[in-house]
């Protein structure tokens, strides 16, 4: 078991933070792509009388919201780890 004063422990915590940040950003980007793809399909249909939002809009919003939650969780978790060091 490594000592907590070892700089490798800090670097490992930073790598974990960066991995969670990449995951959150990926979820947000995927949500944006889903939402824009729904808009593209709506334009292809040429349906002007289509009321409301498509399901892809809400799924895209859900993915983006989940990405923001993951980013928030990663920041809180990193701060907890830094306090223990």
Biggest β-sheet description: none
Give the N-terminus to C-terminus distance in angstroms. Answer: 15 Å
How many strand elements?
Answer: 0
Strand content: under 5%
Question: Mind telling me the C-alpha Rg?
Answer: 19 Å
Element order, helices and strands?
HH
Write the layout of secondary structure elements.
Elements: H1 7-45, H2 55-84
Helix pairs in contact: 1-2
Summary tags:
85 residues; mainly alpha; 2 helices; 81% helix; 0% strand; rod-shaped
Question: Can you describe this structure?
Answer:
By secondary structure, the protein is an all-alpha fold. Helix content is 81%, strand content 0%. It has helices spanning 7-45, 55-84. The longest helix is centred in the N-terminal third of the chain and has 39 residues, at 7-45. The model has no long low-confidence stretch (mean pLDDT 87).
Describe the structure concisely for a colleague.
With 85 residues, this protein is mainly alpha-helical. The protein is 81% helix and 0% strand.
